[in-house]
Design goal:
It is built from five helices and six strands. The chain has a six-stranded mixed β-sheet. It is of the alpha+beta class. The chain binds a DNA duplex (12 and 12 nucleotides) through loops. This is Putative RNA-binding protein with PUA-like domain.
DNA sequence: GCCAACGTTGGC
DNA sequence: GCCAACGTTGGC
C-alpha cells in the first residue's frame, strides 16, 4: 500500500463535504497537472491519503482511502485528465498544521514542504507515521 | 491582498 | 524546440 496527500481549498471542496459523501466517496476531480495526474494513475484501491486544507487553513485534517482506480475526470472533456475516487476514513484527532510539519526535523523531505504547489503528492510510510503521531491518531494500516 | 514559484501555451 | 507571456497556486 502507498500513501498520498490530497490538497483542497476548504471553500472549494472541504473535509466536511468529503465526509458527507460517506463510503461511496467522491471523484478527486479538477486536477489539471500532469505530475498530480500521474500519481493518481499509480494509486491502488485501499491506498491511504491525508486530506489537506490549503490556503486559509493550511493543515492536514483527515485520512482518506482510494476507493476507485484512475478513470476519466467527469469534469473535463479533455481525455488527458484522469482522477481517482476517495472516501473519508476519519479525521485526525488533532489537525496537523503546515507550520508543525515544517518545524519537525524528520519531515523536511516531505513534498508538502518542498513543492507546495503540487496538489496530489506521495507520502512515505515514515512520514505517514510521524504525521499520524503528531495528529494523535493511530496510523491504522491494515 | 501580494507576489514568488511554477506550469502551460503559443508564436517564432 | 525555445522561450516570453500568461495564468494559477498557495504561503505569507
Amino acid at each position: 500500500m502507498n500513501f498520498w496527500l490530497f490538497k483542497s481549498e476548504a471553500d472549494v471542496w472541504s473535509w466536511d463535504q468529503q465526509v458527507a459523501k460517506g463510503d461511496q466517496g467522491e471523484e478527486w476531480n479538477g486536477v489539471r497537472n500532469y505530475q498530480a495526474r500521474n500519481f493518481m494513475r499509480q494509486m491502488q484501491i485501499g491506498d491511504r491519503g491525508f486530506f489537506y486544507h490549503s490556503r486559509a487553513d493550511k493543515e492536514i485534517v483527515g485520512i482518506v482511502e482510494v476507493c476507485a482506480l484512475s478513470h476519466p475526470d467527469s469534469t473535463s472533456d479533455d481525455p488527458r485528465w484522469d482522477c481517482v475516487d476517495i472516501k473519508a476514513i476519519r479525521p485526525l484527532t488533532q489537525p496537523v498544521s503546515l507550520s508543525k510539519v515544517k518545524s519537525d526535523p524528520r519531515l523536511t523531505e516531505m513534498v508538502l514542504v518542498n513543492n507546495s504547489r503540487l496538489s496530489v503528492q506521495p507520502v512515505t510510510a515514515e512520514e505517514w507515521n510521524i504525521v499520524c503521531a503528531l495528529g494523535s491518531t493511530e496510523p491504522q494500516v491494515d
